[in-house]
Amino acid sequence: MDPGAFRAHAHALADWIANYLQDPTPYPVLPRISPGDIRAALPAEAPEDAEPFDRVFADFERVLVPGLTHWNHPGFLGYFAITASPPGVLAEFLAAALNQQAMLWRTSPAATELEEVTLAWLRRLVGLPDVFDGVIYDTASISTLHALAAARQVAVPGVRTQGLTGRDLPRLRVYCSDQAHSSIDKAAIMLGLGIEGVRRVPSDDGFRLRPDALSAAVAADRRNGEQPMAVVATIGTTSSTSVDPVKQIAAVCKAEGLWLHVDAAYAGSAAIVPALRPPFTGWELADSIVINPHKWLFTPFDLSAFYCRRPDVLRAALALVPAYLETPEDDAVRNLMDTGIQLGRRFRALKLWAVLRCYGAARLRDAIAGHISLAREFASWVDADPFFERLAEVPFSVVCFRANPKDGRPGPELDALNERLMHAVNATGEVFLSHTRLRGALALRLAVGHLHTERRHVARAWALLRDAAARLGSV
Ligand code: PLP
C-alpha cells in the first residue's frame, strides 16, 4: 500500500469510525445471524494475489458488520457494559502504527515509562497508596494469574526451578467466595494447583464472602496437612457486584500469613469517586489488586491494571534474562519483561493516558456516579412493580432482578419465563440484557457502563421488559 493510498483509506476510516461512534443505534445490539453464517460467507483460502483495501473494506461492511455485537451501543446493558471512547480509539490507532514492543526499556523507553506514569495516575485516582507498583495486562484473568503466581512463589520458594511435580509437597489452597470469578479456577489450572485447589467459601445472604467460613476452611485445611496459600476477595462480583468484607478478610490473611489478592476488575474504577470509597475499605491492605479500565473507565478493550505491593516477589517469580536480552542499562531502568508474564508487550498505556487526559478525572467521576444513579433508578422501578422483584443489592451499576408473578409456579417455570423475557427483549435489537444465576435462580442483569447510556435507554429497557412480560402472560 503506497503512502497516498494509506492516507486516503485512513481518512475514509476516520469518517466511518466517527459516524459509528457517534451513533451505533441503527445497528441491532445483538446481530441477527446464525452460527456459521460469517464463516460461510468467507473464502476458505487466503488470496494468492493482492487485493485492494477497498475490497477488504467492502467485505468488512457486507459480511462482518452484520455479525458484530455492538458493545458500543448505548442499549448494551449486558455483562459489564464497556466503552470504546474516541480518545482511546485514537490512541489505539497510534499504538498500532507505532508498533512498540516494550519488553525492555530500550525497546521502547516511552512505552515503558508511560506505563509507569499512567498506572501511578490511576493508583492515585482510586486512592491506593504509592507502595503499589503496576503492570498492564490485557485482561483480569492474566492479572489474577500473575497474582497467584506471586503467591505461589511466596508459598513454595523453589517453585520456579523445581516446579510442583515429582516431589513431596502438600496441596496448595486458594480461597475465594462461591461468587468469585472463574478466572481464579483458570489460574489454578495453569499454576498446577488444579480446580480442586480452589476452595470456594460460602457467601452470606448478600453474596459476600463470610470471613468466619474462611477462617474455618483455612483451619480445616491446615489440620489436613494442606498449605493455604492465598485468598481472592472480590469488590464487585461478576453476578451481583457484591462486595466481600475486604478489611476482615485482610485480617484473616495477616493472621494466617496468606497472600491477599483483591479482584476489583469491574468495580475498581468506581473508587475514583471519593464518595464511593466505603466498599473499598481495606483493599489497601492487599498484596495485589486488579482493576480493569477496559470495563468501567471508558478505555477500549483491552487493558487490565495489575497492582502489587511486592515487586520483589514478581521478579523472584518470573524474571528471566537470556543473553540476547541483556542491556547495559539493566541496573538503571525498569525492564517490563522482568515483572510480567509475557515477553512482548504492546503500547496499551497510550490509550489509558489519552482517556485520563481527554476526559479529566472530574468528567470520569461524573460518568461513573451517573451510571450508578441510573442503575438505582432502574432498581426503584423494579421495586415498585409487583410483578418484578430485585434479587440483590445495587452497590454499583448493575441490577439483578426477575419477573415473578407470584402465582406459585415452580422455580424452573419461573426461570423459563425469565429466559423468554430476556430473549424477547434482546430480539428487539434496541437493548441487550444478560443473565446469571443467584442461589440457583435465573436472574436478569441490567448493567449500565457505556459512556453514552442515558436515562432514556434504561427507561426503554424497562418499557420493553414490561411489554414483553405482559405479552408472555406474567403481568
Ligand atoms: N473478575 C471479575 C470480577 C469479572 O467480572 C471478570 C469479568 O467479567 C473478570 C475477573 C475477568 O475479566 P477479563 O475478561 O478481563 O479476564
Question: Care to describe what's here?
Answer:
- This protein has helices at 3-22, 37-40, 53-64, 86-98, 109-125, 140-155, 159-162, 183-190, 211-223, 246-256, 293-296, 311-318, 349-384, 411-427, 455-471, and strands spanning 133-137, 172-177, 198-201, 227-234, 259-263, 288-291, 304-308, 388-390, 398-403, 434-438, 441-447.
- A seven-stranded mixed β-sheet has the order 1-7-6-5-4-2-3, with helices on both faces. Strands 8-9-11-10 form a four-stranded antiparallel β-sheet.
- The longest helix has 36 residues, at 349-384.
- The termini are far apart.
- The chain is globular.
- The relative contact order is 0.14.
- It has two domains: 1-30 and 69-84 and 359-475, Alpha-Beta Complex (Aspartate Aminotransferase, domain 1); 101-346, Type I PLP-dependent aspartate aminotransferase-like (Major domain) (Aspartate Aminotransferase, domain 2, 3-Layer(aba) Sandwich), CATH 3.40.640.
- α10 (246-256) links the parallel β4 (227-234) and β5 (259-263).
- Helix content is 42%, strand content 12%.
- The mean pLDDT is 96.
- It is of the alpha/beta class.
- It has 15 helices and eleven strands.
- Bound molecules: pyridoxal-5'-phosphate.
- Pyridoxal-5'-phosphate binds next to α6.
